[in-house]
Structures are given as structure tokens and as C-alpha cells.
Amino acid sequence: MTEKKSPSIKKSINMKDLDTNFKYEVAKEHGGEHIKRCFACGTCTTICPVFSVNNKYNPRKIIRMILLGLKDEVLNSDFIWLCSGCYSCYELCPRDVKITHLMNAIRNIAVREGHIPKPMEAGVDLLEKYGRLLEVSEFENTLREKKGIPKLNLTIPDVKKVLKKTEIHKLIKKSEKDE
Amino acid sequence: MSKQKYTLFIGCTISVRGLNYELSARKVAEKLGIEFVDIQEFSCCGFPLSSIHHNSAVAIAARNLALANAKNLDIITLCSACTGYLTEVKKLLENKTNSKLLKDVNTKLKDLGYKYEKGVKIKHFARFLYEDIGVEKIKEHIKEPLTGIKVAPHYGCHYIKPSEIFDGFDNPIHPQSLDRLIDVTGATPVHYRDKLQCCGGGILAVNEETSVKMVKEKLDHIKDANADAMTLICPFCSIMYDEFQPTVETTFETEYKIPVLYYPQLLGLAFGLDPKKDLAVRKNQVKVQPLLEKIENLRGGNV
């Protein structure tokens, strides 16, 4: 009898590969404080609008992986970036795990470990350059003037100054796979 | 909020892709006697950085809040993500257990001439209309009720969730505010399956395929409910349902043609404002004209 193998599910986990400290690291991060409360009821996954169209994003499974200590698999993954931030699970979680914030905590750690999706990194660059995620040009201001609404400053240079203070670039290490 | 003047926080997306939202909100506010003071130095709210670097995101939000506070103005927002994030950071910085964070943020902002001080209030424009102006007062301004039009409300996520930061102004599971705001225009709010479903905008940049599938689900449900239009209150939701509607139609070989109006546009129509000049309906991707004709026809039928 042949068994179908799913590439995303490991048949066995080697205890040696587990980082049992990972859950404490997550719990120390802003938003990750409640991770150890999870009792795996699955309410989050049931209610998740992303899971309903793409089962690669499974919050219940991600939390289990963290609690087990599958650090590299989690931080290296694409799926941690699939949470749409809708707060559906956050509202309904019976253990108040605050999953939406937990996902941000994991992403913050992933960024520090050198894993940041290209579009996210591009967003940081845009914010530094313009102070907004999108560039406001003279075109927008001409339209605004025509409609009688106040013009916008084309750039907000303070954003770059704030980000220099918070040292965001020291945290965003270029990951090898992106280079 | 009890002040007379407010500052309007526009954020990134509306600045470039939501002139129809901003203009209609300003026109509607003017009718209702709400005065906006613009702060040119406002930047991105900080939310996009929250998943990358918490401390940077908080500092950016704190700077915006400090700008409003320095002018003694409360903030009215149009984008739900800005609403949620600015409110979240306010609560975070004003929580006594986070005094170290507050001190740290203010140390960073000090050299740039800013200081976060508690007090500034933040409200989404829709919540402000519902709570502070109230449907009864709005009703007095309805000149051309949208009788006979069925409108599907899209609440989106950050307008009501996480509910713990929004003082319980609406129920996060069975919200009513937007339904009531539709009702006051004379239109009928329609219920549809999975009404609170997220637009998927939060992951558009990293996985377009998934977010487009999420859009399809909602548009299918709204179509099933025979709505004449959809109304929403967040620029990112609008990008997903309005700008991406043709993409979804092509990808899945289907047709919706559901006009997507920002709530102030809908309200503006009922106020008798000019659809093109005051509400910029030509900026909407899905044509609004057929809806305007239907409204006209229904009115004609009533005479």
C-alpha cells in the first residue's frame, strides 16, 4: 500500500530539532504574551477567513508548531505572513491568546532573524522616502485644488528621522535567500 | 467627543486612491456643521510597520497623536486601519503598566520636537456620525431619501475590532451602526451571508491570489442577497471590492457589477449633494451611474 505524502506535514519530528525555548521567546515579544494559554480548540482556524480560501494559513497549527519548538519551520515560512489581521480569532478565542497580535510578534521575530517578505521591505523604504506607503505627487494636489480641498505635503521627512531613532534598519537583516 | 473642531486623519491610501472618500466625507461634514482642521505634518499612521518592528510602528503613531494633541484637537479618521492602530497605540501608551514604553517613545521623539501626552481621542468618521451626531440629527438633513435601494453594509475589521479598544460602541459579532446609518438614508440595509468577512486587503501585497479569493466570496454573497450596492468605510476594503471587482470577474469568469460606495457618498446622495462634483462618483471603479438612474427612476415612480 502506498501512502500519499503531503509535503507540508512531517511524519515525525526529531526531538533534537526542537527549540523548546522558542515559546518563551515568543511570550516575551509584544503581543505574544498569551501564547502558552492555547489549548488547541481550533476556534481561530474555524473562523479564519484566510483559512477558508487557503489552508496554508492555519493559526491553530502555527501555535502548536511554536509550542513544540519548530522555530526554523515557523520563522522561515511564508504562512506567518498570510494573516490578514482581521481580529476574528482575537474576538472569539476562549483563552484570549490574542492571536492577531501574536502573529505580529512572530513576524517581528522573523524580521530580526532575517526573514522579511520583499513587499514588506519595500514598504519600509517607501515610508522613509515619502512618509506614506504611497507617493503623493503634484497630480494629486492639482486634483485636490480643483476640488477645493487642502493640498498635502508631498513628503513627511520626520518619518525617516523617527525610524532612524528606532533603528529599524539594524533589525532588518538581509536574508541570504533574498540576495 | 465634545469639541467643536476636529482634525481629519487621512493616512496613506486615501491620500492617493481615495479622493472620492475624502471629498464626500468633507462635504457631508460641512452639511452637518462639523469643522475639520488639517494638520499637514500627519504621516502614515504606523500600522504597516506593526508586523515588522513594533517599536517603530508605535513611535510613528505616537508622533501623529502628539501632533493632534499639541493643537488640542481630537482625531477623526476615515481609514479603519488608521483608526484601529492609532487607538491601539493610544491605549498602549496610556496604560500605566507601560510607563517604560512611553518614556522610551518620548525619548526618541524629543529631539524631533514631539511629546506624547495623554488625552487625544480618535474616532472613525462613521462612528462619529453614529455616536456624536446621531441618526436623528442626520435625518434632518436627508433631502432626497434613497427609498427602495438595497445596500449591503461592509463593516470591515478594524472599525469594530478588537472590540476591547473601542469602548463597546458597537457589537463586534452583530454590529448595527452601519446598518442604522444606511437606514437613515432611506435605503434598506440588506443582510447577507458572512457579513463580517474580511476584505483580504491585509495580505494583498504578499499573496494576491488568496485575497482575491476572499473578495470573490463576499461579492458572491452580496450578489445572492440582490443588493443594488455595497457601502463601506475603509479605503483598503474599497480597493478590494471596487478596484479589484473587474479582476475577480475576469479570474472567475463571473459578473457582479455591484457599485461600491463609500458611506459618505451614499449619505451625500441622500443629502442631495451633486454626485459628480461633491461626491466624485466617477472615481469609483464600478460604474455608479446605473445606481443613480435606478434611484431617479424609483423617485419618478413615487411622484
What is the helix/strand order of chain B? Answer: EHHEHEHHEHHEHEHEHHEHH
CATH second-level architecture of the largest domain in chain B: 3-Layer(aba) Sandwich
- Tell me about the biggest sheet of chain A? none
Calculate the mean pLDDT score of chain B and round it.
Answer: 96
Assess the beta-strand content of chain B as a share of residues.
Answer: 5-15%
- List the chains of the largest interface with their residue counts: A-B, 59 and 58 residues
- Bin the helical content of chain A: 40-55%
**Number of domains as seen in the coordinates of chain B:** 2
Q: Report the strand count of chain A.
A: 0
Described by its quaternary structure, the protein is heterodimer
Percentage of helical residues of chain B? 40-55%
**Unreliable sequence segments of chain A:** 1-6, 175-179
Largest sheet of chain B: 4 strands, parallel
Number of E strands of chain B: 8
